[in-house]
Design goal:
Layout (H helix, E strand, L loop, with lengths): L1 H21 L5 H30 L1
Length: about 60
């Protein structure tokens, strides 16, 4: 479990670091769509997890 947590921490910090370096070089339009796609994926995954919990309860 610790390995999964560590890998996730490293992965998201690396993505954040790379995006922060590129944010001045990327057009605002690309950053906007990156945020929209990322948010949609996170919301979708959240709904999926809620559905899985519902399936466990029922």
């Amino acid at each position: 479990m610790l390995g999964i947590v560590a890998a996730t921490f490293i992965w998201f910090n690396a993505i954040t670091f790379i995006i922060s370096l590129l944010k001045t070089r990327l057009p605002r339009n690309i950053i906007f769509w990156f945020n929209v796609v990322s948010g949609t994926i996170l919301i979708g995954y959240g709904f999926y997890l809620m559905y899985e919990v519902y399936q466990l309860i029922v």
